[in-house]
TrEMBL record:
One of its GO terms (molecular function) is kinase activity. This is PTS system glucose-specific EIICB component. Coiled coil: none annotated. The active site is at 434 (phosphocysteine intermediate). InterPro entries: Glu_permease_IIB, PTrfase_EIIB_Cys, PTS_EIIC, PTS_EIIC_1, PTS_Glucose_EIICBA, PTS_IIB_1, PTS_IIBC_glc.
Length: 598
């Protein structure tokens, strides 16, 4: 099990590291797509500049991946980026010299004759640079070499490591390259419908674990090859759709549009599934669920970011997610079989669809097939939800399981609550984020309060080994930054309250002492929120705040009310409030529950 969990943790880091280079692809795609479209209202020189700028990014993907991987494994330390750049240049030069001596074919890469290893070469040297940094960034040297001690030694050591890696790759890369070429030919030319159907099913299946970025690399950047307008060789259907010259497009199967299937379920299928979830909600919850689902549907349609929808049903209805993964695979099969050609630079949203449509073929088929997928998704989701009474949002027995916003309250307080929920500063080993999720490495997963994270707005929490992922949507990066700042200030070192199996009060624990001040304050609080009969549930969602779920909404302005012993009141939903009471949280909870039991 330890081998598996360690491997999963390493793959998570690789996946997260790949997000940085992937994040530059949208702007590269936009520049290349708009520039190559030769729009009449854009001057020719500006179109050429935009196309060349986008092409420059795609032409240096290996270096960009090297830097991204190095940064991802070294907590974003800039020295590792420099080391990766130096290492990549040395790697190219070494492979070129040794390959020429052995009669192995070389090509010009960044002005150096070398072996073409593509983005995999960049990922390898990025990993080497990161390993060197983590091992030697505090190295001590004799006084006369003191200038080169510490981080200054890292690029130097990486250069020597790159020499050894380059020599090794000259011997082992030709057979590896042959396997990659065979895969490329099979996926892009021989059986694209089958290959990309498998890609679609596996890619969706890896989403919950955050490993889909690793799976994307061979299909995006290795399957298929072409020549661009400048006569330079390029690999990967994502790159070739944007850069290939007309001769390459004419000779290619499906004209490098093998990724077109993503538009079917991201622009049409999943938004329809979100509407089905909305329509299946209980009448009393339908308005709230509608707001959440419509927002998630628009996000998926416009940008192709699907996690807000997917994680709304992944944990409560895994069967729906399995059906979704299969439908996603069929989308790639259908588009490849019908000759539907389109590409992407990011995530198959409407923005990509319009901007990158210049090289599309069978363009009018997309809304037609998309509408069919919308009907299929809606019908399947609605039937399965109602047939098996799945507890999708709005169908739960407790309405407090609806997604809450993670943006309420003070940013520092939110960061503190997140640190506490992950078991305190002492339990957090690593801290990172991708587009939609916090990625936290912890010493002891048992100390992580998953119900608390969900109460704070997480759509779901995934645990494998000591790796935790909390899905907070597109707020995740800002939340990670806030947590990082909080931890660097020394926060989160106070003792963490133990995680309870359930938030309800029990009788087998020592009673909390209720002072007259607390009881008086609670009486005012209860009266303010409609009396004890209107309080459906009260829990501590952090060591310093009370989460109050009401049966019926009340006319209360959180900005003006002044509750005794409280520091602030935050309205999370129409009938859900957070009351910040600091050290009185436990007593506050006990006093309210005491009143409810009377």
């Amino acid at each position: 099990m330890s081998v598996f969990t360690n491997a999963f943790g390493a793959l998570q880091k690789v996946g997260k590291s790949l997000m940085l280079p992937v994040s530059v692809l949208p702007v590269a795609g936009l520049l290349l797509g708009i520039g190559a479209a030769n729009l009449p209202w854009i001057p020719d020189i500006l179109s050429q500049v935009m196309a060349a700028s986008g092409g420059a990014i795609f032409g240096n993907l290996a270096l960009i991946f090297a830097i991204g991987v190095a940064l991802g494994f070294t907590e974003n330390d800039g020295v590792s980026a420099l080391a990766a750049t130096v290492g990549y240049a040395v790697l190219l030069a070494t492979m070129g010299v040794v390959a020429s001596a052995m009669g192995v074919e070389t090509k010009s890469i960044m002005g150096l004759q070398s072996i073409e290893t593509g983005v995999f070469g960049g990922i390898l040297i990025g990993g080497v640079a990161a390993a060197v940094f983590n091992r030697f960034f505090r190295i001590q040297l004799p006084a006369y070499l003191g200038f080169f001690a510490g981080k200054r030694a890292v690029p130097i050591i990486t250069a020597f490591a790159a020499i050894f890696l380059g020599i090794i790759l000259v011997f082992i890369w030709p057979p590896i390259g042959g396997v990659i070429d065979a895969f490329s030919h099979w996926a892009a030319e021989q059986s694209p419908a089958m290959a990309f159907s498998i890609y679609g099913i596996v890619e969706r299946s890896l989403i919950p674990f955050g490993l889909h970025h690793v799976w994307n690399v061979p299909f995006f950047f290795e399957a298929g090859s072409c020549t661009n307008l400048a006569g330079e060789a390029r690999t990967g259907v994502l790159t070739c759709y944007l850069e290939a010259d007309q001769a390459s497009r004419a000779a290619a199967t499906n004209h490098f549009g093998q990724l077109a299937g993503g538009y079917m379920f991201k622009m049409y299928g999943l938004p329809a599934a979100a509407i089905a979830i909305w329509h299946c909600a209980k009448p009393e919850h339908r308005a709230k669920v509608g707001g959440i689902m419509i927002s998630a549907a628009l996000t998926s349609f416009l940008t192709g970011i699907t996690e807000p929808i997917e994680f709304s049903f992944l944990f409560v209805a895994p069967v729906l997610y399995a059906l979704h993964a299969i439908l996603a695979g069929t989308a790639f099969f259908v588009t490849n079989s019908l000759g539907m050609v389109h590409g992407t630079s990011f995530s198959h949203g409407f923005i990509d669809f319009i901007v990158l449509s210049g090289n599309s073929q069978n363009f009018l088929l997309f809304p037609v097939i998309g509408a069919i997928y919308a009907v299929v998704y809606y019908s399947v989701f609605r039937f399965v939800i109602t047939k098996f009474d799945l507890k999708t949002p709005g169908r739960e027995d407790e309405s407090d399981s609806l997604l809450a916003s993670a943006s309420d309250g003070d940013e520092d307080e939110m960061a503190r609550d997140l640190v506490v929920a992950f078991g305190g500063a002492g339990n957090i080993v690593s801290l990172d984020a991708c587009i939609t999720r916090l990625r936290i490495g912890v010493n002891d997963p048992a100390k992580v309060d998953q119900p608390r994270l969900k109460a704070m707005g997480a759509a779901g929490v995934v645990q494998v080994g000591n790796g935790m992922q909390a899905i907070f949507g597109t707020q995740s990066e800002n939340l990670k930054t806030a947590m990082d700042i909080f931890l660097k200030k020394g926060g989160g070192t106070e003792p963490v309250a133990p995680v309870a199996a359930t938030p309800a009060p029990t009788t087998d624990t020592a009673p909390v002492e209720l002072t007259a001040d607390v009881e008086a304050a609670v009486s005012v609080c209860v009266a303010t929120f409609g009396g004890v009969d209107n309080i459906k549930k009260v829990t501590r969602c952090a060591t310093s705040r009370i989460r109050l779920l009401l049966r019926e909404p009340v006319d209360v302005d959180p900005d003006t009310i002044d509750l005794p012993l409280s520091q602030a009141t935050m309205k999370v939903q129409e009938n859900l409030y957070h009351i910040l009471v600091g050290e009185y949280a436990e007593a506050y909870e006990a006093a309210i529950n005491k009143l409810r039991e009377q």
